[in-house]
Write a structure and sequence with these properties.
Length: 252
């Protein structure tokens, strides 16, 4: 709990057996997380068995692989159903340190923001943490294009470490988003569409063999999807198109 607000961490998992327990233990060591929800997307390793053995956790399994975005949709629905007031997504591959949870929780729980991102770019941690140079350059290029089209000034749009308020998650039309990796980008664009300011905290990150990553071809598909999302945002703002992702009424 934080000031009477229930804190839930969600972990969209796929073949995360090697790092899930370590990530979970560090999450719980922060001392303010009420529950961890692990949603397994039909893994082929022992992810589910390990998840079920964790303390203070809930496990949900998909009977087929529905994709990273589809997994997140399940995560957020479960977190809201379980009464979460502050919901944090932490990848179970231990690429992002759970030690930032107290800072992210305080920014949301204190009423300052409804969305907080853990940025690998702030502080120059991306390359220091082992991010491949081609991924770093792609991240910077896509972020520049998206900031121009969306009109924001974020350091990156592609971090998988995110915290949200209950109010924000209930307002976003997440079911209209992709079930693939571009879901992350669409969700962040929707947050900006609804006029919510986004906070960023500098996040050290680690790239290693057990950390999840998408291959080059899927990265290209993701990049094109990000540009399409940003362009759709701009065209919808201008009234040129109508979009299910960006509804015509920007604020409730």
């Amino acid at each position: 709990m934080f000031k009477g607000q229930k804190v839930i961490v969600v972990m969209p998992a796929y073949n995360a057996a090697q790092t899930l327990r370590k990530t979970h233990d560090e999450v719980m060591a922060q001392g303010m997380v009420d529950r961890v929800i692990v949603v397994d997307d039909n893994s082929h390793d022992e992810t589910v068995l390990i998840a079920k053995a964790l303390s203070n956790g809930s496990v949900y399994t998909h009977d087929r692989n529905i994709g990273y975005g589809g997994n997140q949709k399940t995560c957020y629905k479960l977190a809201l159903k379980m009464g979460g007031d502050i919901i944090i997504m932490v990848h179970p591959d231990y690429q992002y340190t759970p030690k930032l949870i107290p800072a992210m929780v305080s920014l949301i729980g204190g009423g300052l923001y409804h969305c907080v991102l853990g940025s690998r770019i702030l502080g120059g941690y991306a390359l220091k943490g082992g991010m491949p140079i081609w991924k770093y350059l792609a991240n910077r290029g896509l972020t520049f294009i998206e900031n121009c089209l969306i009109g924001a000034k974020l350091s990156e749009y592609h971090t998988g470490y995110r915290a949200f308020s209950r109010q924000l998650l209930k307002q976003l039309p997440l079911d209209n988003n992709s079930d693939d990796f571009v879901f992350d980008n669409q969700m962040l664009a929707q947050i900006l569409w609804f006029g919510y300011p986004v906070a960023e905290v500098s996040c050290p990150t680690k790239y290693f063999s057990d950390a999840s990553s998408i291959n080059f071809l899927r990265s290209i598909k993701y990049g094109l999807g990000c540009i399409q999302t940003a362009a759709g945002f701009r065209l919808a703002k201008m009234g040129v198109i109508r979009s299910r992702i960006f509804p015509s009424i920007a604020r409730e």
